[in-house]
Structures are given as C-alpha cells and as structure tokens.
Amino acid sequence: MISTRVMKFEALMKLVDNGELEEAREIAQSYVEAQPRNFVGYLCLAYVAFAGDKDKVAAEAYVEETLRHDPRCEEAMRLGVMIWTGSDNAAREKYYIEKGMRYASREAFYPYRMGILLEAENLTEAAPYFEKAAGLDARNADYVGKYSNVMYQLGKKKVARDYMQRALGLDPNHTENVRNFAQWSFEDGHFKMARDLSERALKTKHDAESARLVRQAAPTSNWLVAMVLRIGLLFIAPFKGRKTAAKMMLGFVLGLWILCIPLFFISNLVGIIGVTVVLALVVVAGPNQQWNTRKTTTRRRNPESPSKTSRKASHTSTTS
C-alpha cells in the first residue's frame, strides 16, 4: 500500500511536470511549515528545485535534509542519483547509488546505475551490477537487454543469446535492444535473424542507424554473398571491434589467398587456379551484395504493396 506521504510527493511531481511550478512550490513549503520534522516537505522542495528550477545545488541540499529526517527514504536517494546523472560529478552520483543499494537493496535501479557508471572504465567490473539489476527486475526490457549486450561484449555469447531472447519476449520492439541484437547477429553470421531484426528496427524507428542495419544485412539474402561473408568471418573472428561486411569480405580474400599458397607447391597452375577462383567469387559476390542493397533501398522508397498495384490494374482494365 502506498503511503499518504508518497502520494503527496507523486501528486506534486505531476504539478511540476505540468508546469505548475509556483503552485507546487507553495504546496511543498506548506508541508514543511505544517510538519517541519517530516521528510515529505523537503523531498517535494528537492523535486521543485531539480525539475522546476534546474538548480542542482539547492535540490541536493533538500535531498540531504530529507535523508536527515528519514535516512531510508528511497525517493530521496533516487532523486539524488537523478540530480547527478550525466554530470561531471560522478562521485556524488556514486554516493547516492551506494546509499540506494544499502537501504533499498531490492530496487534494480541502483545496481543498474552503478553498472552504467562503471562500464566506460571497466566493463568486467560493471557486469555483476547489470546482472543483479536484470535479476531484481526480470520484467524490465532495459535491464535484461543491457545485460545481454554486456555479456556479448565480454564474449559470453551463450548467456547473451539467452538474455536476448528474454528481452525480445518482454518487448519485441525495444529500439536499442533490437538494434544491438541485429548488429551482433550479423557479426555472428546469423544473417536471417540479422535481416529480421534490422527490418524490425527500421519499423520501430526509421532513422539513419536503422537504415544502416538494413543495408548491412539485406545482401545476405543472396546465398553466395552469405557464403562469402561467413567464410570471411572465420578469418576475422579473432580480431576485436565491429565486424562489418567490408571486413568480412577482406577476411575472405586474404584468408583464402593464404590457404592458396600451399597450392603453388603442387604446381604454379594449381596455385593460379586457386587464386582465380577466390577472385571470381569476390567479383560475383561483390555486385550481388550491392544489387541486393539497391533493391532494398528501392523498396523503401517505393513501398507500394502488391495489393494496391493489383487494385490499380483491375481499375484500369474496368475503365478501358
């Protein structure tokens, strides 16, 4: 059951978010005057200062006053994190995150924020926090998807794929998750899944990044392109970084040329035949890749459905 004090705070938040700043400020001050030892008035003033006045210093002062009256006030700790999220003062954000993990240990928000804070410096150190967040709130697609992506970056692909399926089950159209999963499905050579997810990403959010994913995956519908890229993927697999179609193609050429070297020990003719076969595959697969990309782009620009075309045709025949 939600306490009356929390209900007051949530009602005041709505006022501030709707632009009723002065009314919200008066209400918050009236709470303090009526009950100066009660945390709710200071908590309300903290939100007014943060979301209304954009004054982080004043907002934090009210947060600290709130915690002085109620050290376990979860709303105050969460607000403290929000005040310093994205700022240069990571130490203050970490201070409130640690308070949250101590006093609100069942809330997934705090370990998730700790993971975000640490991932730029040490992804391995951040991973347990993302795992904890995904465990505490297993119905949150943000948390589950983030842990999946972190596991993929750390090379734990089996765990990553398991959590990917969970995240897609929770929200099949979560833009960031779908994009991430489309990219690393392509990098793993799961081209059918990459095509499906990139198409879904474009429907979810039609922008440059989604379009790039579609252009990247679309050519793999051609079996020859898919075969060449998969072979190239074998040769570039040990290298870190994003595995693009260009890198896969380069891996195919260099890898098979290296494998062709022993053929020259048999005879020059056999070696030349091997190199020629590699070049022929590249020459055939390259234009196929570009052609499939152009076809996909054309369909995007002319999205007229077959049913509409057939209706137009029937209308024309009737008229004539």
UniProtKB/TrEMBL annotation:
Annotated TM spans: 220-237, 249-266
Segments annotated as TPR repeats: 141-174
InterPro entries listed in its UniProt record: TPR-like_helical_dom_sf (IPR011990), TPR_rpt (IPR019734)
Pfam family, one: TPR_16
UniProt keyword list: Membrane, TPR repeat, Transmembrane, Transmembrane helix
Domain of life: Bacteria
Region feature (Disordered): 293-320
Record's protein name: Tetratricopeptide repeat protein
